[in-house]
Amino acid sequence: MEKVKVGIVGMGGGKGFIDIFRESKRAEVIAVCDIIEERAKEAAEEKNIPYWFKDYEKMLKLKELDLVVVRTDDKNHASISLSALDVGKDVFVEKPMAVKMEELEAMVKKVEKTKRILMVNYILRYNPIYRLVKQHADKGMFGKIFYIQREYLHNLDREGILTGTWRAEENEFHTPITGGDCHAIDTFRWILEDEAEEVFAYSSKMAYSKKDYSFPDSIIALIKFKKGTIGKIHASFGCILKYYADLQVMGTEGSFVGNKFYYSTKEEEALSVNLDYPGHPFQPLIKDLLDSVIERKSPPIDVYDGANASSIAFAIMESLKIGKPVKPKVFLRKI
After folding, report:
1. How far apart are CA 77 and CA 95, in angstroms?
2. Which of 185, 298, 303, 323 has a CA positioned 20 to 30 A from the CA of residue 97?
3. Which CATH architecture fits 4-123+283-300?
4. CA–CA distance from 175 to each of 32, 98, 204, 225 (Å)?
C-alpha cells in the first residue's frame, strides 16, 4: 500500500482532519462527505480533494478508498461504521462508538467477522500527562491502585455546541457520561488494565430545562473494577466555569494529584509534571492508526475498547434510571 486513501464523513468536526492526515506522508484524503451538500463541496474545493459526496453510501463505492473516518453526530457513528466494514473498508470512528447496546454488539461482531481495522478516537490516551501516569502505573510505581477519579467540567452551551444543536436531541444520547466523559471511562480501563464489575450513579438537572436539553446536566458515577479499584467520575455540562479536567490516581505506594506525583507524604518531595498539553495531540494517534492499517495489526484503541467504554457508560445511565447498582456487559477479545 503506497498511501492510505482516506474518506472523511462529517465536515463539521471532520474538516480539521484533512490537514492532520496531510501532515503524514503515508495518507491521502481523496473524498469528503457531509449531509449538508454545500459543506462537502466547499471543503473539497478549498482543500483540492477529488471527490465530495452528500451520501456516504456513494462514497463507500470508491474502490480505491482504504479508510473511512467517521466524524458525525453520535447517533450515526455505528451505521456508517458498519456500512464501511461491510464493503471492506477500515474505520476510524469518533467516540462514542455507538449510542445503543445492540449497535455495540453489531460492531464487535462485524469486526470479528470481517477482520477489518476499527480504531476509536479516545484521544486522551495520547495526552502526554496521561501517558506519563500510565507509564508510572505500568512500572508499579503507584503500588496497588485503590482509587482513580476524573472531573470533566465543560459548559458546552457557552461554546454554542449544546442547546439548539444535535447534542441536545434525545435520540443522540449525548449525556455528560455517554457522549462527554466516556473519555474518563476509557482512561480508567487503560491505566488499570481492568474491566468494570459494577456501577452506581447520581445525577442532577438544574442548569437546563427538559426542552433545551433532554438529559441530566451533571452526573457523578462510581465504578467498582474487578481487581478492587474504585473509580469516580464527575461530569457536568452546566457548570459556570471555564473548561476543567483533572485526573487523580491513588495507590498503596504513590499518588498523582494536581499534576504532581507523590511517593512520600512530604509536599516538597512531590514531582511536578512540567509537560505542555498541546490540545488534542492527533499526530501520534494518526501514526498508530496508519501503522495498523498498513501493517494489518490490531489498533491500540480497538473495537473492544470502544464497546467496553460505552457499555460502562450505558450501565451508568441505567443505574440513574433504576436507582440501583448495575453490572455492565463486558466484551471479551476474540481476535
Report:
1. 8
2. 323
3. 3-Layer(aba) Sandwich (3.40)
4. 28, 13, 12, 22
Q: What is the pLDDT of residues 52-64, one digit of tens each?
A: 999 999 999 999 9
pLDDT tops 60 at residue 142: yes
Question: What is the residue whose three cell numbers read 436531541?
Answer: 169
User: 125-278+310-322 has which fold?
Assistant: Dihydrodipicolinate Reductase; domain 2 (3.30.360)
User: Does the global pTM surpass 0.85?
Assistant: yes
Give CA–CA dist 49/14, Å, rounded. Answer: 14
Element (H, E) at 262: strand 260-262
Question: Rounded distance, CA 93 to CA 224, Å?
Answer: 28
pLDDT at residue 214, rounded to an integer: 87
Question: How many angstroms separate the CA atoms of 153 and 8, rounded?
Answer: 29
By the 8 A CB rule, do 196 and 312 touch? Answer: yes
Contact 88, 115 (CB under 8 A): no
Intervals of CATH 3.40.50.720 along the chain: 4-123+283-300
Q: How confident is the model at residue 216 (pLDDT cuts 50, 70, 90)?
A: very high
Whether 9 and 80 have beta carbons less than 8 Å apart is answered as yes
3-state secondary structure the chain: CCCEEEEEECCCCCCHHHHHHHCCCCEEEEEEECCCHHHHHHHHHHHCCCEEECCHHHHCCCCCCCEEEECCCHHHHHHHHHHHHHCCCEEEEECCCCCCHHHHHHHHHHHHHHCCCEEEECHHHHCHHHHHHHHHHHCCCCCCEEEEEEEEECCHHHHCCCCCCHHHCHHHCCCHHHHHCHHHHHHHHHHHCCCEEEEEEEEECCCCCCCCCCCCCEEEEEEEECCCCEEEEEEECCCCCCCEEEEEEEECCCEEECCEEECCCCHHHCEECCCCCCCCCHHHHHHHHHHHHHHCCCCCCCHHHHHHHHHHHHHHHHHHHHCCCECCCCCCCCC
**Domain limits, CATH 3.30.360.10, in the chain:** 125-278+310-322
